[in-house]
Structures are given as structure tokens and as C-alpha cells.
């Protein structure tokens, strides 16, 4: 799994953040396979700024809380990690403080799977979607919704600079516990 935030995650609180995004090789970015939408935005600070890989740009909401980011997939996918880039030093009252992550088949049946409180975060914040049971390492879903419930210093609108969603990398050979990396090994990977 990816490195957790630089300080502790106790009782749903996450402090700090990481300057560099470090993700394990067994995870892949799934956001490019999704349709992204937001509940509101200021002109020029829309949903595209969440996915442009530029830490200088940001999505800015416009309206009443909660602010929503919807990530919809055409088929059911396994998701394991949500990574946000937020910057309290630059954004101050625009920085999210309480976030709820919901999953489901669509808008009609979303259920909260994770709720976290961010304490003055600066950098990449990793939010694991795994449950309390060690066998629950991912969420199998058509839709993920990130709800910003409140901001630092009672701010109204919010800034999020980047969001990435990761799922487990599929094994190229079903029911095969090993990952072969070359074509020669793949050729001899099964017995006939």
C-alpha cells in the first residue's frame, strides 16, 4: 500500500501530508477510466484542474456545503486508495477539514465508507478505502463520491489541487499467484 501521511492517522484524523507522491507498484491509477463531475465550481477552476497533474491549479467550489466530487465508472472497478493534494499554507480557509468518501452503484444508493478529519494538511494525503477486516483490501464499486463537509477556519468554498484514485493492478494470468514480467516466462507459465 502507499505511504500514509507523514504524521499519525488516529481516530479518523490525518495530520500533515507528503511532499512527494509515493505509490506501490501493485497499484494503478484508475481515474483516467472514469467520468468526473463536481457539484459546483468557479469559472476557470473546474473539474479539469483536479486531473491536470499541475499542483499550481485547483478546483474551487462555488456554493453551499457539502461540496461533491463524483467519480463514475462504466463497469464495476476495485478501488483501494484515494490520494488528495491539498495545501493549508496556500489555501488557508479553503482547505478541507472534514471529508466523507461514499461508494455505490449510482447516486441513489451511495453509502459512506470512510470519514476523515484533516488537520492543516499540506501535500499528498492518502486515504485508504480498505475496511477494518484485513480481507477487505479494496472497494468494488461503480461510483465514488468525495464530499467536503467542512473547511478549516469555517471557510465556505474549498480548494483541492489534485485527486488520484488507485486500484489493485490486475494479474495478467487468472488464478496465477505470480506476476511474470517477460514474454518468455509467460510462455512457460502454464502446464498443459
Automatic annotation (TrEMBL):
One of its GO terms (cellular component) is anaphase-promoting complex. GO terms for biological process: anaphase-promoting complex-dependent catabolic process; cell division; negative regulation of DNA endoreduplication; phloem or xylem histogenesis; protein K11-linked ubiquitination. Gene3D superfamilies: Galactose-binding domain-like (2.60.120.260). SMART domains: APC10. Residues 6-192 form the DOC domain. Keywords: Cell cycle, Cell division, Mitosis, Ubl conjugation pathway. The keyword Cell division applies. PROSITE patterns: DOC (PS51284). Pfam families: ANAPC10. Component of the anaphase promoting complex/cyclosome (APC/C), a cell cycle-regulated E3 ubiquitin-protein ligase complex that controls progression through mitosis and the G1 phase of the cell cycle. PANTHER family: ANAPHASE-PROMOTING COMPLEX 10, ANAPHASE-PROMOTING COMPLEX SUBUNIT 10. Belongs to the APC10 family. This is Anaphase-promoting complex subunit 10. It comes from Arabidopsis lyrata subsp. lyrata. The lineage of its organism: Eukaryota, Viridiplantae, Streptophyta, Embryophyta, Tracheophyta.
Amino acid at each position: 500500500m502507499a505511504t500514509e501521511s507523514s504524521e499519525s492517522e488516529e481516530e479518523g484524523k490525518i495530520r500533515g501530508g507528503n511532499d512527494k507522491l509515493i505509490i506501490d507498484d501493485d497499484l494503478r491509477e484508475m481515474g483516467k477510466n472514469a467520468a468526473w463531475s463536481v457539484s459546483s465550481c468557479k469559472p476557470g477552476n473546474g473539474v479539469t484542474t483536479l486531473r491536470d497533474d499541475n499542483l499550481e491549479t485547483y478546483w474551487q467550489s462555488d456554493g453551499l456545503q457539502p461540496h461533491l466530487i463524483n467519480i463514475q465508472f462504466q463497469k464495476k472497478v476495485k478501488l483501494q486508495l484515494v490520494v488528495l493534494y491539498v495545501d493549508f499554507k496556500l489555501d488557508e480557509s479553503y482547505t478541507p477539514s472534514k471529508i466523507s468518501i461514499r461508494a455505490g452503484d449510482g447516486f441513489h444508493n451511495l453509502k459512506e465508507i470512510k470519514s476523515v478529519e484533516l488537520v492543516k494538511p499540506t501535500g499528498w494525503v492518502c486515504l485508504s478505502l480498505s475496511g477494518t477486516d484485513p480481507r477487505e483490501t479494496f472497494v468494488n464499486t461503480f461510483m465514488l463520491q468525495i464530499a467536503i463537509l467542512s473547511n478549516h477556519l469555517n471557510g465556505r468554498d474549498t480548494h483541492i489541487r489534485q485527486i488520484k484514485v488507485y486500484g489493485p493492478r490486475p494479474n495478467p494470468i487468472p488464478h496465477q499467484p505470480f506476476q511474470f514480467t517477460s514474454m518468455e516466462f509467460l510462455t512457460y507459465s502454464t502446464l498443459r
